[in-house]
């Protein structure tokens, strides 16, 4: 048994630790070309003086913003300069939301200046991290858009009493964290390496390899609020700041712009993740999928367009995702024994998947962006998850070329419930998915309080608000305190309601 397990594992080492979850597909080349009206990365790095001198747009505010952030901020205005911006977004539709001004700040002060400028001149504001959303909430047409990545992407690890924290800047994505952390430390992260850590952690953050939310690891937040002030938030805050601290854990982008984030790290190495192509049918796999096992957690995924070249689907196209509880040989052997005992047939002729995009630069290689994106992700009680999973698979089976499917991994009796996800990336399949969810709302319960995880909505509307913000009323009251004019407006975010009109401006402290 042990010998078999070792041989088996050697054969499969290639397919571990890849990108799971709702990841990208290959070859949307025409979409990429459209976005590559932008220049190359090098092409973007004009001399500031050149940009400033060439600022001959007829927008009078452009020069005011440029002067105000001079010499550290770089401001693009007008069509010609906007063309030079590398969008680096997941959903091509985001690139249609052309801003009026685009600021690449180098200092926190630049961002504060931009906030004050936008308020004073009544320009809408938007701000982006890694641009890895389905619904383009980081962009608004006609706005002043701040590309927070130019603030930096340093990660500083600190040790205190044997426990470790990581303090990071807004440009950090998961790839950067993996590259920085020693193998003895880990954190809750998503599955696509190009997702921004701040955008993820500040809105919840679900990960396949841990059973806690990423937001539970937040130790400190440095944030610029709607009044342009820079504040430091942590668990020691009292009063209104304590309310802001709470809100920043689930709906941060409705409340402020985070310039530095500190998280607690786990004092153990990352759990191993196996990704095994199997020949069995979905129905069979679902019937043997346990809530939990002694060796770890199991889930199912199918992303034909990601894992296979055209017309090369292996077996049933389904993948078993196994998260091991530790790396001992005994645990691995138990996982292999489970696979054999359930008569699961592994697709052994399978080659390693394509390499996955891990940074904005690699997005240009043809994986991103998708034409569009629409995602349905919901948590279900363990008694309901298989029913919802089967129903959604019925939809997915009709659209496997344009959509991707992910179930679990189901994480046992952990308080966080198991989830199922379907993502579609063509306008027609995305629309059909929305209709399907609506028609099957009795089973899928799209608006059940707390059943969705934040920032994975079906669209940019607030129609399923309860799923993401069961504590909406409380967040709305906090919004009244900190952003009563809804300066950080997001359609599917938090809005002030019933505010005391005497409080037209956010209170200081
Ligand atoms: C393919 C894919 C896979 C994903 N997988 C997972 C997953 O496994 N688990 C999970 O939980 N989520 C997952 N997500 C969702 C992802 O975590 C969120 O979309 C996240 O908000 C992305 O952050 P970003 O910086 O990459 O994106 P952006 O589009 O740049 O930002 C997203 C939002 O966060 C705000 N934001 C970004 N930076 C800051 C900041 N510094 N301060 C304040 N607000 C900020 C933006 O304004 C915007 O509203 C996935 C998304 C995609 C597209
Ligand atoms: C911007 O700065 C330049 C150089 O100092 C100055 O000549 C110009 O008048 C300023 N423009 C505005 C609108 O303040
Ligand atoms: C600013 O945003 C609001 C809310 O979306 C919108 O109604 C308004 O038209 C926007 N203003 C401009 C100038 O784009
Ligand atoms: C973030 O914090 C680090 C460490 O305190 C600091 O060196 C860095 O300048 C900060 N970066 C930003 C963008 O605030
Ligand atoms: C942060 O990164 C910059 C380069 O982006 C580097 O010059 C600087 O020294 C780094 N700061 C720290 C504290 O690591
Ligand atoms: C972290 O793990 C190491 C090795 O496993 C152990 O020696 C140390 O005490 C742990 N630290 C804390 C704070 O748990
Ligand atoms: C973390 O995010 C999840 C998902 O939105 C939420 O249910 C939970 O309450 C958040 N935790 C904290 C500490 O805010």
From TrEMBL:
Family stated for the protein in its record: Belongs to the oxygen-dependent FAD-linked oxidoreductase family.
Domain (FAD-binding PCMH-type): residue spans on this chain: 94-268
Keywords linked to the UniProt accession: FAD, Flavoprotein, Oxidoreductase, Signal
Matches recorded under InterPro entries: FAD-bd_PCMH (IPR016166), FAD-bd_PCMH-like_sf (IPR036318), FAD-bd_PCMH_sub2 (IPR016169), FAD-linked_Oxidoreductase (IPR050416), Oxid_FAD_bind_N (IPR006094), Oxy_OxRdtase_FAD_BS (IPR006093)
Signal peptide limits: 1-17
Naturally occurring in which organism (per UniProt): Durusdinium trenchii
Cofactor(s), names only, from the UniProt record: FAD
Name of protein: FAD-binding PCMH-type domain-containing protein
